[in-house]
Amino acid sequence: MNTPVRTARARTSRLRRISGTASVHAVLLGYTLIAVFPVFLVMMNSFKDRRGIFGEPLSLPHAGTFSLEGYATVLSEGSFATYFGNSLIVTVASLFLILFLGAAAAHALAEYRFRFNALLKIYMIVGIMVPIRLGTVAILKLMVDLNLVNTLLALILVYTAQGLPVAVFILTEFMRTLSRDIKDCARIDGLSEYRIFLEVVLPLIRPVLATVAVFSMIPIWNDLWFPLILASSDATKTVTLGVQQFIGQFTVNWGAVLAALSIAILPVLGLYALFSRQLIAGITSGAVKG
Amino acid sequence: MTQTATDSAAPAALRRRRKRAGRLHIVVFLAPAVLIYTIFSVYPLAESLRLSLYDGLEDGSAVWIGLGNYATLLFDPDWARQFWNAFSNNLVLFFVHMVVQNPLGLLLAALLSLAPRFGGAYRTLIFVPTLLSVVIVGFIWELILSPLWGVAETLLGAVGLAGLYQPWLGLESSALVTVSLISVWQYVGIPMMLIYAALIAIPDELIDAARVDGLSGFAIFWKVKLPLILPTLGIVAILTYIGNFTASFDLIYSIQGALGAPNFSTDVMGTLLFRTFFGQQLQLGDVHMGATVASMLFFIILVGVTIYLALVQRRLQRYEM
């Protein structure tokens, strides 16, 4: 029953909607290419020989240019397996301490009433605004006194101290929303305060723990400053520092440089492919709360 | 009736029992976190502030000189030149992030909040550079912009702009802005995500009401959504400010080295701190001047945070519902 005028109007509004959608996609797709292309370019060229890298940098490797010599150099010259192990130990241990100790402290702040509760919470949270790097001079002195220079433990302790304020902040806010009944029931059942924390509270906050883990993990894995200053020995180098120094030595060998970069990128991309959904959900939900 | 009676009686009994059982568990829960945080974060910061008030002597002892180190840093011609150069470079870095990164993040977030098809894929891919180590990002761009490889020149040539190409990272006039833009490329994902989260949290009824009032899509964004996400934009601004003064070290050190090459044109507070503390070339490392530079950074960040809390936060609260 449409009059000609109405169909015409409907058609123009549909046209406008389609062109609007097209421009939205054009901008998003364009920026996505800008974001991804440099990473892709490096990984693609890491599979080429020297001639391929310089002769045809923008084409995919083919039979004439394919080569793994860069990777061979990296694997024979650098101890990347050690560096990866170090990064993994430091990141996992720091994350465990941040989450476990942060949750315990947040539980105490959210659950019990005691003197200086509010003051203590502010004290713990101030660290969010003050970067720990500003204390580097004294941290190095402290680590020398404690005989911890060039140990992974030094990094783990510093990263734990760095991650605790955000963890305590987010977890305390969340724990305030947990119902008291469930904990009081557990008390009636005779559970100790420790078991209530471990067996009742911790399982309830698991989704928030994941958010905190994501927030804390990226800066630890990617940090250059503290590995450079506190643990630059060959046995304690992390991947980030290892790649930085390896590339510094091999600037002329482009194949090796590209391969080293790709080796450092690949595991991060792999993990991201597996966990991107949780990661993004964590960031967005954390942002809404914060 | 009995149900409510036990409900109100139980907590009272519990409270009595908890009091008897002592409060040791509170200490056990709090002590590890408070101790690690105090020893490795609060104490070093306080100690750095203290060290900045002393001067080292030949025999290794230190002597109190009050604000002498600050006077040296700000007024000694050699130090002052380095300090003001690094400080103003940081301001340029901050400015580029505020006018490029955050508006770009806002644009991308606004487009994503329209829920286009493949929105999740765009979001995931645009966030990829943010995950990578700054070291890796720095080297990737160093290679791409290198005149040796010629990729940047070829790509510009593809759009007919080959003549524009210059070795930007190597030129004093363009190195700092180039490094800033590399950092924007890496971190635009963070403001995008934060703003996106704020945009999708706006209740639909508000948008519907505005539409009933006859506002167009653009007007809705400008007059309804933007004021509502102002608190998030404030958070993005203060995060940019803090990150700019401390995190910029990693990128500059990777691409341009601890001297902020070429000719200190990319020197920032982070590289100045590193150089002062550890020494570089002919200059010996100096714990007390290093502590002074770190403390100056602390005060600079404190000023930013105070302005944010006092001014921005208070003004923003008026918009909250």
Automatic annotation (TrEMBL), chain A:
TM regions (residue ranges):
21-44, 88-110, 122-140, 152-175, 196-221, 254-275
> Which PROSITE patterns is this protein grouped with?
ABC_TM1
ABC transmembrane type-1 domain location: 84-275
Q: What domain of life does the native source organism fall in?
A: Bacteria
Membrane topology value: Multi-pass membrane protein
Subcellular localization, per the record? Cell inner membrane; Cell membrane
Question: Does the record's keyword annotation contain Cytoplasm?
Answer: no
Q: Which UniProt keywords apply?
A: Cell inner membrane, Cell membrane, Membrane, Transmembrane, Transmembrane helix, Transport
Q: Does the keyword Membrane apply?
A: yes
- By its UniProt entry, which SUPFAM superfamilies does this protein fall under? MetI-like
- What InterPro entries has UniProt attached to this entry? MetI-like, MetI-like_sf
Q: Which CDD domains match?
A: TM_PBP2
- Function per UniProt: Part of the ABC transporter complex UgpBAEC involved in sn-glycerol-3-phosphate (G3P) import. Probably responsible for the translocation of the substrate across the membrane.
Self-association and partners: The complex is composed of two ATP-binding proteins (UgpC), two transmembrane proteins (UgpA and UgpE) and a solute-binding protein (UgpB).
Q: Which family does it belong to?
A: Belongs to the binding-protein-dependent transport system permease family.
**Name used for this protein in its record:** sn-glycerol-3-phosphate transport system permease protein UgpE
UniProtKB/TrEMBL annotation, chain B:
Task: State which residue ranges cross the membrane.
Answer: 24-46, 91-115, 121-141, 148-165, 185-203, 224-243, 287-311
Q: Where does the record say this protein resides? A: Cell membrane
Recorded hits in InterPro entries, A to Z, give: ABC_transporter_permease (IPR051393), MetI-like (IPR000515), MetI-like_sf (IPR035906)
Mind telling me which Pfam families this protein's record contains? Answer: BPD_transp_1
Give the membrane topology, semicolon-separated if more than one.
Multi-pass membrane protein
**Any signal peptide, and if so, which residues?**
none
Q: Which Gene3D superfamilies match?
A: MetI-like
Q: Does the keyword Transport belong to this entry?
A: yes
Q: Which UniProt keywords apply?
A: Cell membrane, Membrane, Transmembrane, Transmembrane helix, Transport
Keyword Membrane set for record: yes
Official protein name in the record:
Carbohydrate ABC transporter permease
Give the species: Chelativorans intermedius
